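Objective 1b: paired records.
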Amino acid sequence: MSSSGAEWLMDGGLMEGGLMEGGLMEGGTVTRPCRLLDRLPRDADFLGDDTLLICPWLEGLDLEAGPWLAALSIHDCNAYLEGDWTFIASPAERERCYFGVFALDRLRSQDGLFALLRRRGVDAIVNLPSITFFDGATAQTLDSLGFDAKAEARFLDKARRQGFRAALCVRAGDDRAGGNGACVLHEGPGHPFSFIR
């Protein structure tokens, strides 16, 4: 993947608005920091206890804006799955890794995406980039075209039925956060991602 090996640490501590304090979300849900990687993880990436969000489609994008720009149709986010690589990690390491997959891919069928993921040794995914990065009129327009959070959730539900672990990426404060298993929370550009289970 990337020769630069760029990575981004996304803090899981206090978030604006008081949603999370000290790693706990309201109601006592445990949170962990997330770290985005634009490449497959290396041994040193597993030294901490953070959740790794593996997003090779970030390679070449600006470090701060990359996750948010990738939600735009600037490139084929899932093309990295067609490369020649295999994800190899211990069970403990795998437990902390989720691969970013564009759930609303119109270039590949869902079954085709699942087959590519299996061939690469991937067993856990997150809908990243997410349609929930958009709000207001843009979100309404995308929603009218079938690009909505419900479609992402259906994709992840199907992935779970196919045997994948799946984390839902949603905006912090979304009613679905923490209700059905693993989630990656965001508040938009300039704010950290956090992982909750």
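Objective 1b, second protein:
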Amino acid sequence: MSTGVLAVLSILILFILIYTGWFGGLSADLGWSSLQIAGGLLFAFFITVVSPVQIHPAYEIEPGIFVVFIIFLMLFFRVPSSSILFICLHIIFLGTILFMYHEVTDAQTEWDDFTFRLGTVCLMTIFPLCLRKGLLERLLVQVGALVYAYGLVLLVYKEVFQPLPIGSDDFLDTFWICLIHIMVFHYGSKVVVKNLRKVQEIFSFQRK
């Protein structure tokens, strides 16, 4: 499968899941209306399908990376100021772990390496879920850590890239896959807990 296709498909899947009500309470959790979220995803879709632009012989910009930056900034300014310090520490901590994992798997500059991507999705889903409570903070930690790790890869391997890509299709694929996973597990865990409580209540009632 060509790089960039997974990012586009992930955005469409996310749009469908939200539209069909799989993520109940998403608007309340993020502080944005359903219309704003849907419009944002459509904007992300059309920007992501745009081809890279070479602004200089040494630099190339992937338009889809601007969506990532916008998401990060919008999440950042939604988070209470009292939580910012710890969130930034978690971003640096998790981003550094991801970069170290990148080096251990010898993925070089490839974000579509199967082993590296599988581990990245697991790390970027499990750690934010364990480190933070609300969806807003979990998403911010995940997005921030991915951007931080990507920046480290560019910094370390800048001599390898010709031209230096500000964003890449394989990174965007990994980014959107991680985003879907954390949302599915965030709301999925709520459903599981809710059903377990119902089962507990049924057993408690039968004992009486």
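The chain has a mean pLDDT of 88. The two ends are 58 Å apart (CA to CA).
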